[in-house]
């Protein structure tokens, strides 16, 4: 091909000519083009600057292309003439080809233009001479046949009934049929069923002469069933008298173009209807596309955004980040689901997830960037909330689980797994209650919670609560170890019960003590009457014995109720046990073997020795009664260290070193159902008349008063063991027995003020003291005592007062007021209650400055003398 090919372009307008020139430039053809828009232009060009090839439109509205071909052949018989046309007029093309046109090129397939030119110009002069000779000899039919078979467009000749008579190779390849197969069909048979109605109407119009041709884009069905799109042009060929001869159909396969157009339409529809913001921008940051979702996200409509800088939605602190992203897009990289910040028109900031992709032109060059953005502000906020909720569950010190509808575990926190492992359940399914599946189904079905459902695992109480989340089809489960709480509640209930019973017992004992003081006192005075008949003396002694027994009973009641006065000393428990062994052996009898084991170096305890003896006595009597056929009673002393867990088993007990007294018998044991009740007063399993039910209650009260703890264990029919824990003193010194004071009772002439609200007791005390030579003043309350004191305070040497009295002034308050006037005033208290009841923290000593009711007249006289002399 020449370096500068001279081309004459015959077109109806400049735009069509420019289209052909652009195609030739793109194809690499070097040329010089001249344009002709009329027959005069064409004739002048042929005369003045003859071209090497002519490109002419077949359908010129104001210029006869056939005339142009005749003129060219007259002036230049061998010059190539290429028909280029958009509208395919089969009859016109056929006529041109018959009169010497070189080739036909469709405007829809301009890619074939350059090859057609090269073929036309590449033939040798000799071949062109031979072709001209052949053409001149070939009749019109042979010319038509060559064009017919060589055309790249599918062509079909039909009869007037629409049956296919002849087809070219292009149509056969397009539809997948052979020529013979196509002769058995009509064009209607090849058309898609949706196009039949239109096809029938157009064929009818051709036959009746209402139109000479028609064009349409239609669907055709290949032999293999595949649908293709074709650009159909049907022309009616008529004879010289205008009668229809046959329809000529030309079909160009436009499937690829149609698919591209459909895809573009679908793509455009997707972009417009997308809920994601889709924005296109050039690499210098200018917005070139903006869908409605972008308007909703950023607040700008399309007209406001198009042509503006993309920076309007980029916060200043994110501009460098966006610039770096664009650099990566220029290199062909795609960035998916990148989370960043964008700015709205109102200035608000939103969190978005963006996917940024390169945009390429037809040649594959990257020319712009496309950004798909989705608002994730709410999602991020929800994620933050979920993280908080997840952290709440994960770090909750109590077990938290989520259960699926079938009872399987979807989630469990660390506390749940730790609790399961601590209970020997490595699998959470083993840790859950046995009927978890049924509970989950019930909760989801009813929507109701199931709270405080308790199970026992290895003697540990676990409380479960189930809460349905119906919209998620799951159940949230919470668990807690309530063993310690239940133990504390049981201890509290027991303590409250014992406290209430103790208050009752203490009140009864207090009233009885006042009565017994009078009975025992007067029986003693009666027995001291000179020349009393023997029968009366015997009666007085029996009354004294009965009163003493009753007093012992009230002492046990007071001890149980912790209203007995404690007179603590530094006591060596080994000495207490050793001093009691002789008496215990006589008590137990010959059938019971007593074995005592002493712990060496035993620390001292601060305790009332008499109460310690009472504990040993009561436990030994119970053991003897549990071994009617004989057995063994073992008493051990030891030192133990109680930790927090052990100390928490009883109220008021603190961790530390304790002296332990263990009393074990080989008797009948205690039934399990009776164990919770054995320390209750008046509870007994002995026969009527064989027990008061106060022995163990007294032990319990003494231990509680000494801030200790008592434990009991029993095997029915084999043994019972009591463990008494008493706080140890730091110094391991042996208690020293107090020296016995002189028992000789001496009277005196001192004045004594008696304050006692019980008249019989007051009369008895006055009588006893007056017999011993004392002067006695008396009052029935603290209030009544004050005027007597004001009158006789210089004379009074001793105040003898009950501790609990009516009218709002207690014995201690009275003593404080009187000692304010007279600091050297001697004071002695009496009571049926302990100091704990009146709230006093006083240093008292039995027989010295305190008398426990009931008391013997001799003990009263001795105590008064000792106090005055002290």
Describe this structure in words.
The protein contains 30 helices and 32 strands. Strands 2-1-3-4-5 form a 5-stranded parallel sheet, sandwiched between helices. Helix content is 42%, strand content 25%. 31% of the residues are buried. With 870 residues, the chain is α/β, with parallel strands linked by helices.
* β-sheet strand percentage: 15-25%
**Could you give the distance between the termini?**
151 Å
Q: Could you estimate the helical fraction of the residues in percent?
A: 40-55%
Spatial sequence of strands, sheet with the most strands:
2-1-3-4-5
**Major sheet characteristics:** 5 strands, parallel
Class by helix and strand content?
A: alpha/beta
At a glance:
The protein has 870 residues and is α/β, with parallel strands linked by helices. 42% of the residues lie in helices and 25% in strands.
Fold topology:
Layout: E1 5-10, H1 14-26, E2 31-36, H2 39-48, E3 53-56, H3 65-75, E4 81-85, H4 90-98, E5 103-106, H5 113-122, H6 125-137, H7 140-150, E6 154-158, E7 164-167, H8 169-175, H9 179-183, H10 187-190, H11 196-207, E8 213-221, E9 227-238, E10 244-253, H12 255-273, E11 277-282, E12 287-290, H13 292-298, H14 302-305, H15 319-330, E13 335-343, E14 349-360, E15 366-375, H16 377-394, E16 400-403, E17 409-412, H17 414-422, H18 428-431, H19 436-446, E18 450-457, E19 460-469, E20 474-481, H20 483-527, H21 534-560, E21 569-571, H22 573-588, E22 592-597, E23 605-607, H23 609-626, E24 631-642, H24 644-647, E25 656-665, H25 695-705, E26 709-715, E27 719-727, E28 751-755, H26 759-771, E29 775-779, H27 782-792, E30 796-802, H28 811-821, E31 826-831, H29 835-838, E32 850-852, H30 857-869
């Amino acid at each position: 091909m020449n370096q500068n090919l001279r081309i004459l372009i015959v077109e109806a307008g400049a735009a069509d000519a420019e289209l052909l020139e652009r195609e030739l430039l793109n194809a690499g053809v070097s040329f010089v083009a001249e344009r002709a828009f009329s027959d005069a232009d064409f004739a002048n060009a042929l005369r003045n600057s003859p071209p090497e090839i002519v490109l002419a439109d077949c359908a010129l509205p104001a210029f006869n292309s056939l005339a142009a071909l005749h003129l060219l052949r007259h002036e230049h018989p061998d010059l190539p003439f290429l028909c280029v046309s958009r509208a395919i007029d089969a009859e016109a093309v056929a006529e041109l080809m018959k009169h010497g046109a070189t080739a036909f090129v469709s405007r829809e397939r301009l890619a074939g233009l350059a090859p057609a030119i090269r073929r036309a110009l590449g033939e040798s002069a000799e071949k062109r001479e031979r072709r001209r000779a052949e053409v001149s000899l070939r009749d019109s039919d042979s010319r038509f046949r060559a064009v017919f078979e060589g055309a790249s467009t599918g062509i079909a000749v039909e009869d007037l009934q629409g049956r296919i008579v002849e087809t070219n190779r292009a149509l056969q390849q397009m539809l997948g049929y052979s020529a013979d197969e196509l002769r058995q069909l009509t064009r209607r048979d090849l058309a898609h069923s949706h196009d039949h109605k239109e096809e029938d109407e157009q064929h009818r119009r051709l036959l009746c002469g209402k139109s000479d041709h028609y064009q349409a884009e239609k669907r055709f069905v290949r032999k293999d069933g595949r649908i293709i799109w074709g650009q159909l042009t049907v022309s009616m060929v008529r004879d010289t008298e205008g009668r229809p001869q046959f329809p000529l159909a030309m079909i160009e396969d436009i499937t690829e173009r149609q698919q591209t157009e459909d895809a573009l339409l679908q793509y455009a529809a997707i972009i417009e209807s997308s809920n994601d913001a889709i924005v296109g921008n050039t690499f210098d940051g200018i917005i070139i596309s903006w869908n409605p979702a972008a308007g909703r996200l950023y607040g700008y409509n399309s007209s406001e955004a198009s042509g503006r800088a993309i920076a309007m939605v980029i916060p200043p602190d994110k501009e460098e980040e966006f610039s770096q992203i664009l650099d990566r897009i220029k290199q062909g990289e795609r960035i998916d689901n990148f989370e960043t910040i964008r700015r709205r028109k109102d200035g608000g900031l939103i969190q978005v997830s963006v996917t940024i992709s390169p945009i390429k032109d037809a040649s594959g060059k990257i020319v712009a960037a496309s950004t798909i953005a989705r608002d994730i502000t709410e999602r991020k906020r929800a994620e933050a909330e979920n993280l908080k909720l997840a952290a709440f569950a994960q770090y909750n010190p109590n077990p938290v689980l989520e259960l699926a509808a079938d009872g399987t575990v979807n989630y469990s926190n660390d506390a749940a797994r730790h609790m399961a492992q601590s209970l020997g359940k490595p699998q959470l399914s083993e840790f859950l209650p046995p009927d978890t599946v049924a509970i989950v189904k019930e909760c989801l079905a009813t929507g109701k919670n199931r709270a405080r459902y308790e199970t026992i695992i290895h003697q540990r109480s676990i409380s479960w609560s189930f809460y349905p989340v119906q919209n998620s089809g799951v159940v949230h489960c919470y668990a807690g170890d309530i063993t310690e709480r239940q133990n504390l509640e049981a201890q509290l209930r027991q303590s409250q019960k014992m406290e209430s019973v103790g208050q009752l017992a203490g009140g009864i004992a207090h009233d009885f003590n006042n009565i017994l003081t009078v009975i025992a006192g007067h029986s003693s005075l009666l027995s001291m009457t000179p020349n009393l008949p023997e029968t009366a003396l015997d009666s007085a002694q029996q009354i004294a014995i009965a009163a003493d027994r009753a007093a012992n009973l009230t002492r046990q009641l007071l001890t149980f109720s912790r209203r007995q006065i404690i007179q603590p000393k530094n006591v060596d428990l080994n000495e207490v046990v050793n001093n009691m062994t002789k008496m215990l052996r006589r008590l137990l009898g010959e059938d019971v073997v007593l074995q005592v084991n002493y712990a060496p170096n035993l620390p001292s305890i601060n305790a009332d020795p008499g109460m310690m003896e009472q504990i040993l006595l009561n436990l030994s009597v119970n053991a003897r009664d549990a071994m009617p056929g004989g057995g063994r009673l073992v008493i051990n002393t030891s030192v133990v260290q109680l930790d927090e867990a052990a100390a928490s088993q009883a109220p008021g007990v603190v961790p530390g070193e304790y002296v332990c007294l263990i009393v074990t018998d080989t008797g009948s044991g205690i039934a399990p159902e009776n164990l919770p009740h054995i320390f209750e007063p008046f509870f007994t399993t002995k026969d009527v008349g064989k027990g008061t039910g106060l022995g163990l209650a007294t032990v319990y009260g003494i231990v509680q008063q000494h801030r200790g703890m008592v434990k009991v264990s029993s095997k029915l029919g084999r043994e019972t063991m009591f463990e008494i824990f008493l706080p140890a003193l730091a110094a391991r010194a042996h208690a020293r027995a107090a020296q016995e004071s002189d028992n000789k009772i001496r009277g005196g002439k001192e004045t004594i003020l008696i304050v006692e609200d019980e008249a019989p007791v007051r009369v008895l005390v006055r009588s006893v003291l007056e017999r011993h030579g004392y002067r006695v003043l008396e009052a029935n309350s603290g209030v009544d005592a004050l005027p007597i004191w004001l009158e006789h305070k210089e004379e009074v040497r001793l105040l003898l007062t009950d501790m609990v009295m009516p009218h709002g002034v207690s014995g201690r308050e009275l003593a404080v007021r009187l000692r304010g006037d007279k600091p050297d005033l001697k004071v002695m208290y009496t009571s049926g209650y302990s100091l704990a009841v009146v709230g006093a923290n006083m240093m008292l000593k039995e027989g010295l400055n305190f008398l426990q009711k009931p008391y013997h007249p001799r003990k009263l006289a001795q105590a008064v003398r000792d106090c005055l002399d002290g």
